[in-house]
Write a structure and sequence with these properties.
This protein has 285 residues and is an alpha/beta fold. Helices cover 37% and strands 25% of the residues. Helix 5 runs parallel beside helix 6. The longest helix has 27 residues. Pfam families: GAF (PF01590), STAS (PF01740).
């Protein structure tokens, strides 16, 4: 999970809300104080949601560098699970800094995946008392992880749904703006291409301003549909102007031959784009 453009921790509303009830059930079933969900980031594991029955041990937002976490041991395990009677005595965990900090003993964690099977993070429980977890306990935790994976999918779907529209804004006759927001997947790419080309043909467009300031890049890959769209518009005799290239986009695309070879004007903002065409924004007196 190396993508810095995915949902932030605060965007998983369904997961955070529903997990509270699930944590209570897990805590009761396994007789543990603490249950929590972590999310794997570029270099650290961060607690998205947590439940502490009595003593607060794991707060939400708690973050640990990936190499020093129990989560790394869980995710790398063939069974995608890890349990220990006592973290302070287990040879795999006793030397970890987090063990010294938390002073916990009983622990059980399983890998948490999203609906596509990609590792999202972990679902874990821990307690200050020594705990012996059975195979049935491990299977129970894996079942709860499957439930949580559907909530992750729901949050991701809701996030992407907000960006499914293709907002084309007419400025004056012959000039329109396309504002790109969010992530462009394959389905949305087809929608954008079809809508833009159809709109341009039906409205006799001469200039199309493409604003990329809200674009989220996935895994460092610039969406090919935007390159194809610019080339298609140019074949139709429509001049394109790209605005809103963010520092993140610029860093990722500095070596993108296709993007750099596009015969299109790039400017910093909408005002500069309109000025290039020959229009100026004036303040109303």
């Amino acid at each position: 999970m190396t993508n810095p453009y995915n949902l932030s921790s605060t965007d998983f509303h369904s997961l955070r809300k529903a997990s509270k009830k699930i944590f209570e059930l897990i805590s009761e079933r396994l007789n543990v104080n603490t249950a929590y969900v972590t999310r794997r980031g570029k270099s650290a594991m961060t607690v998205l949601s947590s439940y502490n029955k009595q003593e607060e041990i794991i707060p939400e937002g708690y973050s640990v560098e990936y190499g020093g976490t129990y989560c790394r041991l869980i995710i790398s395990d063939d069974q995608e699970a890890m349990t220990t009677f006592n973290l302070e005595k287990d040879e795999l965990t006793q030397e970890l800094e987090v063990t010294t900090q938390l002073k916990m003993k009983g622990f059980l964690g399983v890998t948490l995946k999203d609906s596509s099977g990609e590792v999202f993070g972990t679902l874990c429980v821990m307690d200050r008392e020594e705990k012996k977890f059975s195979d049935d306990d491990i299977q129970y935790m894996k079942s709860m992880a499957e439930v949580l994976s559907h909530l992750i999918e729901l949050d991701q779907t809701k996030y992407n749904m907000a960006f499914l529209n293709v907002p084309i804004i007419p400025i004056i006759k012959g000039v329109s703006i396309l504002t790109i927001q969010g992530i462009i997947d394959e389905a949305r790419a087809d929608k954008i291409m079809n809508n833009v080309l159809t709109y341009s043909a039906e409205n006799d467009i001469n200039y199309f301003i493409i604003d990329l300031s809200g674009l989220l890049i996935v895994d460092g890959v610039f969406p090919n549909v935007l390159i194809n769209m610019v080339q298609s518009l140019q074949l139709m005799g429509i001049e394109t102007i790209i605005t809103g290239i963010t520092p993140d986009i610029a860093r990722h695309e500095v070596n993108n031959v296709k993007l750099l070879s596009l015969k299109t004007k790039t400017v910093t903002n909408l005002e500069a784009a309109l000025k290039y065409i020959g229009f100026y924004l004036t303040e109303k007196e």
